[in-house]
Amino acid sequence: MTTQPSPAPSGVSRPGRSVAFFVLAAGFVAALLPVFHWSLGAAATAMTYLIGTAALITVGIIAVYLSGRTAEGTVEAEGAGQ
Amino acid sequence: MLIGYGAIALFLAVVVVVLERTRVRSSGFSDYTTGGRSFGPWFQTMSFLNTWLAGSVFISFAGMVAGGGIIGYYLVFYSLLALALMFFMAKPVHVWGKRFDLRTQAELLGFRYNSRAVRRTAGLIALVAAFPWIVLGMQSLGLVFVHLGFGATPAVVAIILSILVLSFRQIWTVRMGMRGVVISDMVQGIVAYGVGLVVIVGLLVYLLVHGYGFDAVPEGYYLLPGPGSEAGPLYFFSLVFVGAIGGWCWPDVFVRLFTARSTAAIQKSTVLSAPILMAFSTGLCTVALLAASFPGVAEDPNSVWFTVAAVGGPVLVALAGVIVLAATMGNIDALIQASSAQLSNDFTRTVPDAQSQGETRMAKIGTVIITVAAAVCALIWLEAPALYMLAIVSYAGIVQLGPTLYFGLFWKRGNAVAAVASMLAGIGTAGVLQVIYPTSVPWLGGVTSGVAGLLVNTAVYIACAYLVPTGTEERRRVDALFAPLATAAHRQAQDVEPVPGQELDPVRS
């Protein structure tokens, strides 16, 4: 496995990292906060809530990973190993 | 019947051929139990999914949605939240695991708290909790053989067949250890979640086109328990919370963090797993939800996957069966391998020999013993409600490792007394409440026994962390343990291995 330095200098993406963590935190809150669970009943609201929350957590995970990579200033080059 | 069982035989043959062609002689016990810490993001992804999403998702979870509505979607939420936790756990677990050659979850906890009592307590909880699930996994696969027999196979014969198939697969778990489990996870994962997702999309289209839309779902299916409900207003929260926290307490899931070649590989596998997990689990739950009005589903919700697949004839039913088998095999292999590794590593090992051959032999014997014991129990307890109760209690119990695990990874203050006292207090509380209130605790707003136990557990841990004094030497050891984590991110980014002699070496427990 090798690494390739990216042109992004360290620290440039700090606001982006904060936004990424905010999105992930919002996903946690949406999934766990009981008041959201109690407000369901119709098909449209229920499916929007379920799929929307799942999408929010998924996007949050990807965003945190990408922002962390940019902040470190490197990317891992795949292809070696497995 | 020939199509169904022929498909299973073909799938097993493919798995065995792949395992034989990739067979590498393990170079020691550590290699045997962690696969040489050599796997990249895609292997990690499939390995995680194959362990996490067992065959029961097609049966129990799909059945829960088909029979009770959107409450079964808690699978989606807790799985994604657990995945997010994996991202943050990757660094401490992988760095400590690689640097100090840790092989099991119990060993990591014993190492972190510098305590054999913590190691043994955590190991015992994990072993006891995992065993009923191996037995239930063997039994639940019987449903696959019933459906693939197309009415010609009695239930008892089907369960015996499922036990034989899963026991046969363990020959390669014994011979190849964790490396064999991860490699077969790739094959099984492609079938279970790759082909499975294609089948799910096909079934979704079929249901929507043929009048089984969202408006045809029975009344009340879009409701979650709220204030005034029988289960209680905090019931859904409890399911999601315990699932997410408890996920990493299972030794078979946790050991995935030791098989990766780097922290970056684990974190990248999190990113690869998230969209697959979301698409697969949401799709499967939605198929089950739409199928609630499908003929025959209300009478037997647990068979919803096979009932709907029947629209594609025997070939699609056979494919559906192979998909469930692939998912089940991954979970059972991992449970058996992780249990045998813990048995030999955390209970029988005292002083490792030079080549670790004695430990490897012990782990292989452990795998055989656990497989045979589970097969015998699966046959003896064919109709045993006590086994189901034990399995449910075990989930409430294993989640009690949570505070010890998470505080231990991210907080320097915790000590061995806090760890042991909190685990025992949590298990005691959860166990008693689980027996009295099998579903939820009404006077606690509907939280499950697992959450109630976690509250006591966390309180005891924090109290002991502050009240029980920690010696200067131990504080220094823990500081040294956490110090490399601060620089690990930088090293990980540059993929630089620690220089021998320049790293701090806390005393091993």
Summarize the helices and strands and which ones pair or pack:
The complex is a heterodimer of chains A (82) and B (509).
Chain A: E1 2-5, H1 14-32, H2 34-38, H3 43-72, E2 74-77
Helix pairs in contact in A: 1-3
Chain B: H1 2-21, H2 29-34, H3 41-52, H4 56-68, H5 74-99, H6 105-113, H7 116-140, H8 142-148, H9 155-209, H10 235-247, H11 251-254, H12 256-259, H13 263-290, H14 304-309, H15 313-348, H16 357-380, H17 385-398, H18 402-410, H19 416-436, H20 449-467, H21 472-494
- Number of helices, counting only DSSP H or I runs of 4 residues or more of chain B: 21
Oligomer: heterodimer
The helicity of chain A comes to 55-70%
Order of helices and strands of chain A: EHHHE
Number of helices of chain A: 3
Count of extended strands of chain A: 2
Count of distinct structural domains of chain B: 1
| Pair with the biggest interface | A-B, 40 and 48 residues
Instruction: Please report the distance between the alpha carbons of the first and last residues of chain B.
Output: 55 Å
C-alpha end-to-end distance of chain A: 10 Å
Radius of gyration of chain A: 17 Å
Give me the strand/helix succession of chain B. HHHHHHHHHHHHHHHHHHHHH
Number of strands of chain B: 0
Q: What is the CATH homology-level superfamily of chain B? A: Hydantoin permease
Approximately what portion of the residues of chain B adopt beta-strand conformation?
A: under 5%
> Mean of the pLDDT scores of chain B?
86
Structure classification of chain B: mainly alpha
Which CATH top level class of chain B fits? Mainly Alpha
**How can the largest sheet of chain B be summarized?**
none
